[in-house]
DNA sequence: CGTCTTCTTGACCCTTTTCAAGCGCAGTGG
DNA sequence: CCACTGCGCTTGAAAAGGGTCAAGAAGACG
């Protein structure tokens, strides 16, 4: 199956200019692909990673597991993302990864990646950049969950997901798949499930956006952006066409 | 002045085994050193970085600036840290850096770093690792500010600062310098300044720790660790001796 | 000695959490 | 085919925790 390579090349190309040789090097990588059921874990806290994951389709989440059993979701990943590129130089995973809805993930041995990095430093830098973009998204999450009121948090998260989905060409019309439950939204944004519901209801009421049945519909993009104080600069992508 | 090289080598050595050639390569780097006053910015949001910073002494902070003028502090850095290694492959800074107390920072051109990375890939990987540890700290901050009650947040932050200070050999007895104001603590942990004060007063009252006049004193380390649900694994350092 | 900033504390109010109950739907097994 | 069950969503009412506001104390600095 060619798709794993395609989505990776597409994604890295969003921020790094890849030479034909880099593309060839990536196409030579051997991926092992696997399908996961919703909420199925594929990397656990404490694992010692020897492979890197690549989201081929569906959505994937990273989360911390707290002593109380509560989860804290940290980030979400769409097709083309390397959700555990962070594990490349790390002894033990400090967080877990799971499929959000049904998802297809491809794995590649670190060993093989390191060889490719040596042969094509640009490829290595592209992956490094990828990890830095990840970090920028984390920073924004700190700010979002610490400094913004509830509605703004929700709006910001949805802006980010929608924007990234558009870049990954996963938006059709004004909607994209976001197979996430209210409980998970709460564990992402640090709010109680009741508040999640009421916040979503309010955004629905004002006709700004609608998130239900695993689908996000953005009705007033600029308004949503304003509410969430969303500025996509932190995603460090090539400027995108915004409606 | 040799100190800049020393602290960098010490810091990278905490997680990466450097060969003599790597150390020599680092020693050959030309740093431009500068002193900064408390709260002085040295990198601003929107800057296009051409240099990397290295904290030589003192403490440095990274923050987001919100539309309202409020700041959200994202991370703190001690001597040896490369607080904007994130800027290496990034077009525009999405956050600012400032000195917390008086601080000395050394700068090195990206160009020179890239050359050194090519000559000594291990050095490049060490810096990459450094950026990944940064990201792990961000992740922990998301969890801290989203999922933990106020006292635990404070305890966790102080545990992290104290632990890292110890690794950087900045702890003497049970105390270390942390030149941070209540306002800044509030803008770090996402709490109102009154709450910051009350939380600190409570920790002081129970004799767990004391943070005042720019100095952190840890009186009951294990208790503080328990309160803050602090597990240093996420720092990805070599196991440290803990009292 | 006065002024400014930072810290401290109290009182009040409001947002959000918690708790509880009900609804709708999908899957299961009688 | 239809209870039964479990899960996720919805909503209301009560409770709590933290935010806001205001005023005073304690230093720091000129």
From TrEMBL, chains A, B:
Keywords, A to Z, come to: DNA-binding, Transcription, Transcription regulation
- Occurrences of domain HTH crp-type (ranges): 148-222
Q: What is the lineage of its organism?
A: Bacteria, Pseudomonadati, Pseudomonadota, Alphaproteobacteria, Hyphomicrobiales
**Where is the signal peptide, in residue numbers?**
none
Q: Does the keyword Aminoacyl-tRNA synthetase apply?
A: no
> What one GO molecular function would you report for this record?
DNA binding
Coiled coil regions in record: none
What would be one Pfam family of this protein? HTH_Crp_2
At the top level, the lineage of the source is Bacteria
What name does UniProt use for this protein? Crp/Fnr family transcriptional regulator
**What is one process in the GO biological process aspect for this record?**
regulation of DNA-templated transcription
SMART domains linked: HTH_CRP (SM00419)
């Amino acid at each position: 199956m060619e798709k794993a390579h395609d989505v990776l090349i597409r994604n890295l190309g969003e921020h790094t200019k890849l030479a034909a040789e880099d593309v060839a090097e990536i196409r030579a990588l051997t991926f092992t692909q696997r399908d996961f059921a919703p909420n199925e874990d594929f990397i656990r806290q404490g694992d010692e990673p020897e492979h890197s994951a690549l989201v081929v389709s569906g959505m994937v989440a990273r989360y911390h597991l707290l002593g109380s059993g509560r989860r804290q979701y940290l980030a979400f990943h769409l097709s083309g993302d390397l959700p555990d590129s962070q594990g490349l130089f790390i002894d033990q995973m400090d967080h877990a990864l799971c499929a959000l809805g049904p998802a297809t993930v491809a794995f590649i041995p670190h060993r093989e990646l390191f060889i490719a990095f040596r042969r094509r430093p640009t490829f290595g830098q592209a992956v490094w950049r990828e990890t830095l973009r990840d970090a920028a998204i984390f920073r924004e999450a700190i700010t979002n969950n610490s400094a913004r009121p509830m509605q703004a948090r929700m709006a910001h998260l949805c802006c980010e997901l929608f924007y990234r989905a558009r870049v990954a060409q996963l938006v059709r019309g004004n909607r994209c798949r976001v197979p996430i439950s209210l409980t998970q939204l709460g564990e992402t944004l640090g709010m109680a499930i009741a508040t999640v519901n009421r916040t979503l209801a309010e955004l629905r009421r004002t006709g700004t956006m609608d998130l239900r049945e695993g689908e996000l519909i953005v009705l007033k993009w600029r308004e949503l952006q304003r509410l969430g104080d969303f500025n996509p600069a932190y995603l460090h992508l090539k400027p995108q066409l915004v409606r």
